Amino acid sequence: MTESIDFYFDFASPYGFLACRKVGDLASTVGRKVNWRPFLIGAVYKAHGGAPLAHPLKRDYVFKDVFRRAKIDGVERMQTPANFPASSVPPSRLAYWVEREAPEEMGAFVEAAYKAFWIDGRDTADPNAALEAAESLGFDRDKAMAGAKCQAVKDRLREVTETALERGVFGSPFILIDGDPFWGGDRFADIEALYG
Length: 196
What we know:
Order of helices and strands: EHHEHHHHHHHEEH
Helix content: 40-55%
Number of helices: 10
Strand order of the largest sheet: 2-1-3-4
Distance between the termini: 13 Å
Radius of gyration: 16 Å
Number of strands: 4
């Protein structure tokens, strides 16, 4: 048994946004800590083919469902980010810089960045949106900008994405707990039942 849960997500994922708001409580319930693992879901689609919203019926359903789920979860102002779907490289790299500089702030950064995209409607590909999320937590903008561009941070994101593929992660959000896979925020109750 590990002392943590691995929470894989992509900042462009609306379901990832809704799950990030509750994963801390889930971890507390099952007596674990959260390993925040932003990854690039586009690499999964490239490796295995397909695209998440290519089918028009599925796309229509997802956007009805996610806004319905948001309302049930008490998120009234949720909106689709500008330029959706766009790259989530800037916030993902910045998250790993935050992890390196102040690991205890990683969860707060993830939530702040997700809010910028899914509440304020900012473009996930806009580095300024991610930098402003970091600034809101007291990080120096220039240091954060330089940190997100450093090779070690770029390598970290690539490594986590490759590990996600190796571990069978295929969607966002995706939780691995003691090697057991759970896809989707709607599986949190299952995790509580099995591991609580």
